[in-house]
Write a structure and sequence with these properties.
Bound molecules: CIS-heme D hydroxychlorin gamma-spirolactone
Oligomer: single chain
Number of strands: 18
CATH architecture of one domain: Beta Barrel
Distance between the termini: 53 Å
Radius of gyration: 30 Å
CATH superfamily of one domain: Catalase core domain
Shape: globular
Structural class: alpha/beta
Largest sheet: 10 strands, antiparallel
Length: 724
């Protein structure tokens, strides 16, 4: 927006005015026209010509008003004593606007600040009526509206989407019995066992307090120092160093409620439950180099991906599955299910799919919805209750407290995104930002004066009535929480060799950013308890002369059976559904090949985006123009799942001297993606030193390209990088 020039002199005003008139005739961009007209007017009554210019063709706009509803005649100029004189305190319109602007931000979340959300619904396919009275889990076919927010943990609200980090997976179900918040992560275990340690783990991973960096990264001294002194974190560390922490798309992550919860049936009998989200598109992760480059190419990669999928009607979907188990079963587990650093292998308690979540609507307003949504694990519905997991017990306090500070009022539940969609009523009153206007005299209970006042109901929430454990009060960690390494070993040993190499390499990468030698060594010491070969790989990668001593372990690691569902590769789907293929073209690209590739890719369920040296596109071999979706320099291959290069010979030769074009194929190759090239595209392969393999196919062979593009070419990896 242009401002009225200060001290503008008369000849210039005349010049600007005549420019405004001219630009009106020649349809100059609206903003220029508008402000020059106002400036040229240099009058306090700026209605008339300006208002016409404010109306886009065919628009009928409501009047612009203050927050009190006062219609405004001038939204361009503040009030001045004289045209060139001082501003006036009287200008309540300016003050209202600026004051509101000054208060536009609310405190960002301390963790999970960076997030993307969407509306959707949950549909139950299998009733759990035997176990629970929660209507959302008993009425097959019923759709419950919901809001889901994905997040990274460590970075601030404006940080990148693709750091190595845990992803938050929080769902607010607006059920007919009140809101149920399932506030989970994409990893089924957590770093710590007791909420007492949460501020410590978070402080350690956030940017270091003296220097203010690194942002959104765990690869620094304080995090690994804390971890090296917290052996209970080692299981979660295995997950965090796996490719689970660098998802390719939020549509392709799993979600976990982490803790054991309880389901309660009408008779009051309770069953333990763990909740799992499983993506319809299968799991898919980036490779580390790709995740790093994505951070530069598109810091909003995940948010944009989610937005575009929903805009295109390609609605992301997850299955909701449960693990149900009794107290007797839990007593027989070789671990304590109340310990959030442990998971229940699917082989021990299988998953039962009970419904699906579909995200089908992007929020209308990021702040009002994604930023103001307030999740609390304490938000449950009748028929769902908590377990004694000491991490969960701490969370039941923390989130309400955080919302009071972030949203500034005990009435945060009245914001549209947080308000239940079922009727709700109680005798709580007043407070900052009270939106409701309660009627009558009765704001207490019991009462006899108002037959309409809300009352307890037998269908209301009840806590499970279960006998307490024996034992004395105290600040203690149960003995049953003491085994820190067995499940870490089980996780590592359940991975494919590719995934094991990624875990080892991630550890080397992270620890190489740790300046303190004894911290690096201490971590390798812990790894010895998990897997001695892993410890050796990481020690070699760090260049340690000798293997550091392992710290004493409270409980020696046991060999648990491997569990393939813990893999990512095993859970990838061979599909192009929901993926995106980049097609690099330039003038003269063969129109038939472009058409055939597009057809084949779209038939396989993926989208095609055209990349060209100029955003205006290119003229294909048939003389027809083809517009581009991205300009080459700003649309590298990292943003695609596979790429095709269709170039006329001349264009191929020219682009073979262009860094962005060479990187386009070299990165796709390095990130283990399928590449299709024609003869012109071959110039880029040659310039990038790329040898053909089964993932590099002829552009004329669309079928082979689609087949190769359905997965990553793991066998190629040893050729392109040294892994630990
Ligand atoms: Fe937490 C946010 C998930 C442990 C305290 N947490 C937050 C969010 C997710 C999780 C997904 C973001 C919700 C959103 O999108 O707004 N947190 C977890 C999981 C945990 C966990 C899966 C362990 C199993 N958290 C945890 C503990 C505490 C907290 C132990 C404190 C005792 N978490 C918070 C918080 C946040 C939060 C500080 C920050 C913003 C917010 O709550 O609304 O209260």
């Amino acid at each position: 927006m242009q401002h009225r020039p200060v001290g503008v002199d008369r000849p210039l005003l005349i010049l600007l005015r005549s420019f405004a008139m001219a630009s009106k005739k020649t349809a100059t961009p609206r903003s220029t026209t508008r402000s020059t007209t106002r400036t040229g007017g240099a009058t306090r009554d700026s209605r008339g010509q300006g208002d016409e210019l404010h109306q886009p063709a065919g628009g009928k706009h409501p009047p612009l008003t203050t927050n009190q509803g006062l219609p405004l005649s001038d939204n361009q100029n503040s009030l001045h004593a004289t045209p060139r004189g001082p501003g006036l305190l009287e200008d309540f319109i300016l003050r209202e606007k600026i004051t509101h602007f000054d208060h536009e931000r609310i405190p960002e979340r301390i963790v999970h600040a960076r997030g993307s959300g969407a509306h959707g619904y949950f549909e139950l396919s299998k009733s759990l009526a035997r176990y629970t009275t929660a209507r959302i889990l008993t009425e097959v076919g019923e759709r419950t509206p919901l809001f889901c927010r994905f997040s990274t943990v460590a970075g601030g609200a404006g940080s990148i989407d693709t750091p190595r980090d845990v992803r938050g997976f929080a769902v607010k179900f607006y059920t007919q019995q009140g809101n149920w918040d399932l506030v989970g992560n994409n990893i089924p275990v957590f770093f710590i066992q007791d909420a007492m340690k949460f501020p410590d783990v978070v402080h350690s991973v956030k940017m270091e307090p003296d220097r203010g960096f690194p942002q959104a990264a765990s690869a620094h001294d304080t995090f690994w120092d804390f971890i090296s002194l917290t052996p209970e974190a080692m299981h979660m560390i295995m997950w965090a160093m796996s490719d689970r922490a660098i998802p390719r798309s939020l549509r392709m992550i799993e979600g976990f409620g982490v803790h054991s919860f309880r389901l309660l049936n009408a008779k009051g009998a309770s069953t333990f439950v763990k909740f799992h989200w499983r993506p319809k598109l299968g799991l898919q992760s980036a490779v580390w180099d790709e995740a790093c480059k994505l951070a530069g190419a598109d810091p909003d990669f995940h948010r944009r991906d989610l937005f575009e999928a929903i805009e295109n009607g390609d609605y992301p979907e997850w299955e909701l599955a449960v693990q149900l188990f009794t107290q007797e079963q839990a007593d027989a587990f070789p671990f304590d299910h109340l310990d959030a650093t442990k998971l229940i292998p699917e082989e021990l308690v299988p998953l039962t799919v009970i419904g699906r979540m579909v995200l089908d609507r992007w929020p209308d307003n990021f702040f009002a919805e994604t930023e103001q949504v307030a999740f609390c694990p304490s938000h449950v519905v009748p028929g769902i209750d908590f377990s004694n997991d000491p991490l969960l017990q701490g969370r039941l306090f923390s989130y309400l407290d955080t919302q009071l500070s972030r949203l500034g009022s005990p009435n945060f539940h009245q914001l549209p995104i947080n308000a239940p969609k079922c009727p709700f009523a109680n005798l709580q009153r007043d407070g900052h930002m009270q939106m409701r206007v309660p009627r009558g005299r009765v704001n207490y209970e019991p009462s006899s004066l108002d037959p309409q006042s809300p009352r307890e109901t037998p269908a209301g929430f009840r806590s499970a009535s279960v006998p307490a454990d024996d034992g004395a009060k105290g600040r203690v960690r149960p003995e049953s929480f003491a085994d820190h390494y067995s499940q870490a070993r089980q996780f590592y040993r359940s991975q494919t060799p590719y995934e094991q190499a990624h875990i080892a390499s991630a550890l080397v990468f992270e620890l190489s950013k740790v300046g303190t030698a004894h911290v690096r060594e201490a971590i390798v010491g812990h790894l010895r308890h998990i897997d001695s070969a892993l410890a050796r790989r990481v020690a070699d990668g760090l260049g340690l002369a000798a293997l550091p001593a392992a710290p004493p372990a409270a409980v020696a690691a046991k060999d648990l059976p491997v569990s393939p569902p813990l893999q990512i590769i095993g859970k990838m789907k061979s599909t192009l559904q929901g993926r995106c293929v980049g097609l690099l073209i330039d003038d003269g690209s063969d129109a038939g090949t472009v058409r055939a590739l597009r057809k084949a890719v779209e038939a396989a369920g993926a989208r095609v985006k055209i990349v060209a040296p100029r955003i205006g596109g290119a003229k294909l071999s048939d003389g027809k123009p083809q517009t581009a979706d991205g300009q080459l320099a700003g649309t590298p291959s990292v943003v695609f799942d596979a790429v095709a290069v269709v170039l006329a010979d001349k264009a191929g030769k020219r682009l073979a001297k262009e860094g962005a074009a060479i990187d386009f194929v070299r990165d796709a190759y390095g990130h283990l993606k399928a590449i299709a090239v024609d003869q012109g595209g071959q110039w880029l392969l040659d310039a990038g030193g790329i040898e053909r393999d089964e993932g590099v196919v002829d552009a004329s062979d669309a079928r082979s390209f689609v087949a190769a593009a359905k997965g990553r070419l793991w066998e190629r990896e040893a050729k392109v990088r040294t892994l630990a």
